[in-house]
Design a protein that fits this description.
heterodimer; A: 336 residues; alpha/beta; eight-stranded mixed sheet; three-stranded antiparallel sheet; globular; B: 329 residues; Rossmann fold; four-stranded antiparallel sheet; 12 strands; 27% strand
């Protein structure tokens, strides 16, 4: 499989406050993963876990404090940002479709501008054809968009228009940062179905950033879960979400409200006080809320272990000879 | 026994733009009863009139929103109060002591340049006067503690707290005076799953503790399945289906409700799903007949011409659809 982008030990440190109160927050802590062409890779976790920072690092909006990001197959004649976003490079769609567009500007202007900036067409007619193709790919047509303002569309339609604009440059990687969280539940599925279609028909790679694990399960091939800057679990989506190994993944999957009144939440959950406290923890960042916390979790950072092909960052799994076994029996029994 | 009753409630936004009058029919002939000590859920797409319905139920119709017709009644201490016949001063007295409201985006209602304790003091002073304030402040601290909110957050400024914590603080503020009815508009929409669960855990704790009535509005059907007892589905300003949550999820009647439930992706199921076809209608230019007919795969010829009534299909289960109206037009 062809890699599109690879992150190698990427770390991003922000400092907060000034003077004596100055503190460091490790927003992304030694994160490594890659994306292949033709796959949807999910990056999930709660707000403030570093998923958007990771996306911004891939997009080149932020410089990592250490580590490297390799983007494969860029045009060698261009450099820097031009190469990254150039034809066949990376494109992005963001969370709030109502903020993506200037309310006083015609929607079609964004399309013509992209064509012009990238010199994708020689004539206006060629440009119109390209735009029509891009809009057709998301289930719209130029006639529906022409001479209309953003306020004339619903959130779901605007999000599709944003995706169509991104498609103009024929990107190999699309970064979608929480693309459905502002879209109505009834229209959400049509956007995620669109991502499926782009992967299957155009062979694009998609980085799907979300906190909605149900849609992530529905479309992703592989998924990584982040918690306070750390990658805590990564692997094939049905394995990771089907039988979660890390206690945090377990908490997340259990907290999805199921649309089934016979399977309501049972038990109560502990809540965090502030994000900062968790970021400052020395050992495992989840130790404060973990139902299976052990003494060592509080002082040292758990190692990454590979269990059944899934990467897990937790002390519950330890190496015994060549095999990795859960400590003290099956974690699922312990958590139940 | 009902605590809120709406009869033929119609509340429209009347806008005058460049000499034209535009009427947005946000709440259109809504009849509903919210019972004592229940959790009543309201679901529907954005722009279907959910929030406007809440405003109408609260008696807050400020221009351009206008009450066109209908009645809203509260039952307080066995007495029926007609909300729109009350004087503003009487209505003000009911708020926060009898009926409290957590508006949408309420995470941002806290004054950013004041510590939470100041906001709390202001709130108490305006409802209980300056005299009882001290005593109530002590009670408020205990109440925060009971709800699992650490007392130190009272010294914090809103920006120092996470979104979920701010949401919990506003809910605590709204319920400080032990209201009999709490109305929460999309209280968890911008939150992620774990924090959402925490906020809902707190809402149900309060509901149990105060033995009050909770009206919960959200478009998240998963939340309704977990929390609500009865559920009303709104479409284009109208109630199209209402029933017990357990029944609505297992045997939904209205085609729109069926779409809402069928389109939800589930963990452990990668099977392909379809959303509701088409787009929600504009509330100022409603389609003829049943407003859902352009998107409905089961539409009959009559759906285009005449509007169905909300009929009682089974005890406790009402639906507004021609498929179920046996008596015919």
């Amino acid at each position: 499989m062809k890699k599109v982008v690879e992150l190698q030990n990427v770390t991003k440190i922000y400092s907060v406050g000034g003077g004596l109160a100055r503190a460091k927050i490790i927003a992304v802590d030694n994160v490594s993963f890659h994306l292949n062409l033709g796959e949807i890779f999910g990056l999930a976790g709660e707000s403030g876990c570093g998923k958007t920072t990771t996306a911004r690092i891939i997009l080149g909006f932020e410089k990592p404090t250490s580590g490297t990001v390799v983007v494969y197959g860029l045009s060698p004649t261009r450099s820097g940002v031009q190469a990254r976003f150039g034809p066949g490079g990376i494109q992005a769609v963001f969370q709030n479709p109502f903020e993506t567009f200037n309310p006083l500007r015609l929607v079609e202007a964004y399309f013509f501008e992209t064509v012009k900036n990238y010199r994708l067409a020689q004539t206006k007619r060629q440009a119109a054809e390209l735009i029509e193709d891009a809009l057709q790919a998301v289930g719209l047509s130029y006639a529906e968009v022409a001479e209309r303002y953003p306020s004339e569309f619903s959130g779901g339609q605007l999000q599709r228009i944003a995706i169509a604009r991104a498609l103009l440059t024929k990107p190999r990687l699309l970064i979608a940062d929480e693309p459905v969280s502002m879209v109505d539940a009834s229209l959400r599925i049509s956007i995620v179905n669109l991502f499926r279609k782009l992967r299957d028909e155009l062979g694009m790679a998609i980085l799907y950033i979300t906190h909605d694990l149900a849609t992530a399960y529905y479309i992703c091939d592989r998924i990584a879960l982040m918690f306070r800057g750390n990658l805590v679990e990564m692997g094939e989506v049905s394995r990771v979400l089907g039988s979660p190994r890390h206690p945090y993944t377990r908490l997340l999957t259990e907290s999805i409200p199921k649309a089934d009144p016979t399977r309501k939440w049972t038990g109560r959950i502990a809540l965090l006080e502030t994000e900062e406290e968790e970021y400052r923890r020395k050992g495992c960042k989840f130790a404060g809320r973990c139902p299976t916390v052990m003494e060592e979790c509080k002082y040292s950072v758990p190692p990454d272990s590979l269990v059944d092909g899934v990467l897990v960052k937790c002390f519950l799994y330890q190496r015994e000879g060549e095999k990795i076994v859960p400590k003290g029996g099956d974690i699922r029994e312990q958590l139940a | 026994m009902w605590v809120i009753q709406a009869k033929g409630l119609k509340a429209f936004y009347i806008l005058h733009i460049l000499g034209h009058t535009k009427i947005v029919k946000a709440v259109n002939e809504v009849d509903l009863e919210v019972l004592e000590n229940e959790i009543y859920g309201i679901a529907g797409e954005s722009g279907c009139g959910k929030s406007t319905l809440l405003k109408a139920l609260l008696g807050v119709t400020i221009a351009p929103l206008r009450l066109i017709s209908g009645q809203v009644l509260y039952r307080k201490d066995g007495e029926e109060l007609d909300v729109y016949a009350l004087k503003p001063e009487e209505l003000r007295k009911l708020r926060w002591t009898f009926i409290a409201y957590v508006p949408q985006g309420s995470m941002s209602v806290l004054n950013p340049v004041r510590r939470l304790s100041r906001t709390l003091e202001d709130f108490l002073a305006s409802h209980e006067g300056l005299k009882g304030r001290r005593q109530l402040m002590a009670r408020a601290k205990d109440y925060f503690h009971e709800l699992g909110l650490p007392p130190k957050i009272l010294k914090a400024y809103p920006h120092q707290l996470s979104g979920g914590m701010r949401q919990r603080v506003t809910i605590a503020l709204a319920t400080l005076l032990a209201p009999k009815i709490l109305i929460a508009d999309e209280p968890t929409t911008a939150l992620d799953v774990v924090v959402q669960r925490g906020v809902l855990q707190m809402l149900t704790d309060i509901h149990r503790k105060l033995a009050n009535t909770l009206v919960l509005v959200t478009h998240d059907m998963g939340v309704h399945a977990n929390v609500s007892r009865r559920l009303g589905i709104m479409y284009a300003g109208k109630l199209v289906e209402e029933g017990e949550v357990s029944e609505l999820f297992t045997a939904p009647l209205h085609p729109y409700t069926r779409f809402l439930i069928k389109s939800l992706p589930k963990l452990g199921d990668k099977g392909s799903r379809e959303g509701v076809p088409g787009m929600p209608p504009s509330l100022s230019e409603l389609p003829s007949g049943c407003a859902f007919h352009p998107r409905c795969p089961l539409a009959l010829p009559i759906c285009r011409e005449k509007e169905p009534l909300l009929s009682k299909e089974k005890p406790g289960h009402r639906v507004r659809c021609w498929l179920y109206l046996r008596e015919g037009p």
